[in-house]
Amino acid sequence: MVWTNSLVMPILSRKPARFRTAALIAALALGGALSVAGPAFAADVNNAKNAGFESGLANWTCSASSGTTVSSPVHGGSAALKATPAGQDNAKCVQTVAVKPGSTYTLSAWVQGGYAYLGATGTGTTDVSTWTPDSASWKQLTTTFTTGASTTSVTVYTHGWYGQAAYFADDVSVYGPDGGGGGDPAPTVPGAPNGLAVSGTSSSSVSLTWNTVSGATGYNVYRNGTKVTAVTGTSATVTGLTASTSYSFQVTAVNSAGESAKSGAVTGTTSASTGNGGGAVPKHAVTGYWQNFNNGATVQRLSAVQSQYDIIAVAFADATTTPGAVTFNLDSAGLGGYTVDQFKADIRAKQAAGKKVVVSVGGQNGTVSVSDPTSAANFANSVYALMQTYGFDGVDIDLENGLNATYMSQALRSLAGKAGSSLVLTMAPQTIDMQSPSNAYFQTALNVKDILTVVNMQYYNSGSMLGCDGKVYSQGSVDFLTALACIQLEGGLSPSQVGLGLPASTSGAGSGYVSPSVVNNALDCLTKGTGCGSFKPSKTYPDLRGAMTWSTNWDAAAGNAWSNAVGPHVHGLP
């Protein structure tokens, strides 16, 4: 999926805006894209000097002393740039690069950490830039530019964003005709990887590992001769496989000079199916968040939650002093004396009526960090303990302060191993989290696709965002719902794992409320191809899971208008 031009960043989450929105809107008219750079022509060179920061900051100038070099993390070699935004400084690091007039160049760099931007000015034609949200692993940014008839130098730059975490950059390339200024030597095509082995299997996935290849900047993974994924590390998990089936896998190494020969093949065999993720959730389901606090909405006991809700997410679990671990504390005083025994009995009654009740982790104020094997184990163990104590059917991931895809995936798989195939696993990312499959939240959803029930993205408290057609859409319209859902539907999630999350009333969110009729039109557009706005999906998705709302309490405060209208519509989908 390629992102180009005119992206407007959102106001994130249910809480107040965290960014200088006006400045951000003005800054992000982008001409670049995320992709993998193609091989250079034989005469091309990397015109950037000290491209891997092996000589410290030589040839680079960083604003407000924001840049330094570090030995970890690095993408290649032994050093990388670390630049930290502070105050009114966005940690911009620049280099003037000699170029040849009237020539085309490919500008690329590997980035990690906070929001990172890459661009070129002074091209003599159209200046370019590209960006990526925060990333827990190395990601390549790349774009191209053409120099003007008299242009002999350009300024290339990286920078972060105000108030955001430090970013890392490495292996900067300005590939094209030799500008005469000198630069790093061109790479050669890497050798084929060795040591390919199967490190794990499930009923729908095979995990692979292999040895590092010198000079490689990434690896392609092939299944039965067809490329299925590309990674930057020396491991990968291939998902979406059929149970009890054998597959042949090979790996190649790549860099800007080209792709190696394929490795030797290994065979991976998936295990027998133990059932799909999600337990006995209806084909089309409505999810509602139940508030374990009083914020002015109707105070409810679980027993009072409208019967149209199929999945009830109890908001929220609480962080503990143990890294990754969570607990749950019923707000009995705030809920009019609601006791733990009554709460447990209401969970059992809802389950007897065919409903699922999950505990939600995160929310506006919930900061739970799962960033290493220990915290992943603590998360899985503590959530499973809550399931046993209260009878929860599973967990909802609503972490609005970022997550680590590697270790959250590990934690959720560990939880699934304890809970079994009946586990209900839901997620509620913000719109920015699901703009690209490379984003950490999206990666997590894909990593656990075989045990995932539904992703109910929050289509509210958001600025304008890109749809899957590359156009910008504003919240509050059918097009915003359908064009953004399309990214998930075409980005690797099953239609049954996609739901539309909206506020139940104008009081339920700071912005983004739409009437139930708009929600229903979006559902019809995606499932039947009717009721669409200007955006029309290229195909229909009749298995779309349904819709979600924040919250059952705000819905009750509005006379259950949302669930009375959206619930029957969801349950009547094809």
TrEMBL record:
Residues 284-573 form the GH18 domain. Keywords: Carbohydrate metabolism, Glycosidase, Hydrolase, Polysaccharide degradation. One of its GO terms (molecular function) is endochitinase activity. Transmembrane segments: none annotated. It is an enzyme of class 3 (hydrolase). It comes from the Bacteria. Residues 192-273 form the Fibronectin type-III domain. PROSITE patterns: FN3, GH18_1, GH18_2. Its EC number is 3.2.1.14. GO terms for biological process: polysaccharide catabolic process. Belongs to the glycosyl hydrolase 18 family. Chitinase class II subfamily. PANTHER family: ENDOCHITINASE (PTHR45708). This is chitinase.
